[in-house]
Amino acid sequence: MIDFPKRHRVPYDGKFRVGDFDTDPPQGSGNESKLEADLAQSVERLDELQRRLFADERHALLAVFQAMDAAGKDSTIRKVFSGVNPAGFRVHAFGRPSELELRHDFLQRVAARLPERGKIGIFNRSHYEEVLVVRVHEAALAAQNLPGAGAKGFWEDRFESIRDFERHLARNGTVVVKFWLNVSRKEQKKRLLERIDDPEKNWKFRLGDLDDRAQWDGYQAAYEAMLRATSRPWAPWYAIPADDKDYMRAAVARILVETLEQIDPRYPKVSAAQRRELQAGRKRLLAE
Ligand code: AMP
Ligand code: MG
Questions:
Q1: Nearest to residue 56, comparing CAs of 263, 264, 266?
Q2: Does the model's pTM come out above 0.85?
Q3: pLDDT digits (tens, 9 = 90+) for 159-172
Q4: Which residues, in sequence order, are CB contacts of 163 under 8 Å at separation 6+?
Q5: Strands (DSSP E) along 230-277, which ranges?
Q6: Which of 69, 75, 92, 133, when mutated, tests ligand 1's pocket best, judged by the most ligand atoms within 8 Å of its CB?
């Protein structure tokens, strides 16, 4: 059995290289039916762990997803959380910032959508777009009208802000786990063509996605810098091969299970006073 967290965790030493991490599943990861069984097992376990997280009310879990278009963020989120009580988690998709959001600091809109204790928050894109699309497309940075935009040390400062922000969250009970779904350029082309050829997928296609694709190398460089600077013990990144969806889903689900197991949420202990209430309740009901 593959040790998914160990295998895919981006090292904390700042030496990560995108080229060292595969877009294909590792050898011996098993066929489709094995991976589906693995996913099903994790989905069930996530349901149990989420209930305990909710009851325990001591921690929140924040799961961040970043990837190039068509890597499978949406379907991975849908499949992995398919067994979790919808009352226990919320997904936020972050698109282009509004006029008002642009006038705030770049963490403001994500800070407003963090999960409260007991809940799971899922970010489909996130504050990390601020060091990806904003770094690759000059116009996106210009739109922020910032002092010192693009000056020396600008991106390093952004990374520092992000590290500090996530460390603050960790200190206050929010466990942060981040997934980079690593799709190859070749597989992305195949999936974008499917969006054009399959009428049910046409709605997903945007010509603008090809502009991002045209900047592939720029994005890879931005991902590399981001992963180096922001994979830390209190908020690790996982680089998940995304060319095989079954593998990707099984890996993400298992890493989430193991992250929650480390939190080890417990149902609260019943106090002596509560025990007396329970007994009193039983007595009243039975006396009806
Ligand atoms: P999608 O998730 O494919 O529906 O598209 C959302 C789009 O919003 C992507 O093209 C992102 O790059 C873009 N986006 C998300 N966050 C930001 C941001 N902070 N600044 C600029 N563009 C963003
Ligand atoms: Mg898109």
A1: 266
A2: yes
A3: 999 999 999 999 99
A4: 229, 230, 232, 235
A5: 237-241
A6: 133
